[in-house]
Amino acid sequence: MSWLADLLRDPAVKNMNVDGEERFQAHSRLLAQKPMLQEVFTDFHHSFDRLDKQYLSGNGIRVEIGAGVAPIRDSYQDVLATDIVSGPGLDRTLDAEAMDLPDASVRVLFGQNCFHHFPHPSRFFEELQRVAVPGGGAILLEPYHGPLAAWLFRRLFRTEGYDKNFPSWETPVAGPMNGANQALSYIVFERDRAEFELRFPQLEIVHQETCRNYPMYLLSGGLNFRQLWPTWATPVLKILQRLISPLNRWLALHHIVVIRRKA
Does 254 have pLDDT greater than 60? Predict the structure, then answer.
């Protein structure tokens, strides 16, 4: 599988330093060339907003951590776009494990594929308890733990692993993007859920759902691989997504977890 991943990897990112600012530049150029992938991110943004309105409450700012090159602010201008490293189009830098934000000032923290990059997840949860208003919380989109996701993510990325049996929440990392365990959301919110609830009694997991746009995400190539489906045939792909949605439990590549601070 590694040789196939290397073959399909977009030339623009083959020798890229994933921890440097060049990542923003390369990914921005790729995203601009992929309307289908842009639609995937927009779909993620709408899911974030829908779940915020459905499960969270309270007055406070909306902040995205790890915003990268497709910030939620592109769809909802009130969302503050932040990342741990500076990049074009971001409002500011912000470390999710040591947030320079006042106590009880945040309605929601959004995170697109960033939670599994946190070297010390417990510090993030401590910060979430501190900055979130009662009734507010976090909405995290992460790699799923179904059969297809577990098989695929273990083979796609050279800089990230996928180990559902890793004994610790903390993963040795070499940089903001290097060394992550993409199975972290499964470990914390499924395998070790009782431990999570015991250690962070102010937080509760109120909702989880799978994302159904995995065919479009996969065939768009994401931000690292070549697109495998013509953009003009996107409507056909959307029909396919609806038809196979009953199989999401086994085929989904991402899921969303909603965490609420108790009032």
Answer: yes
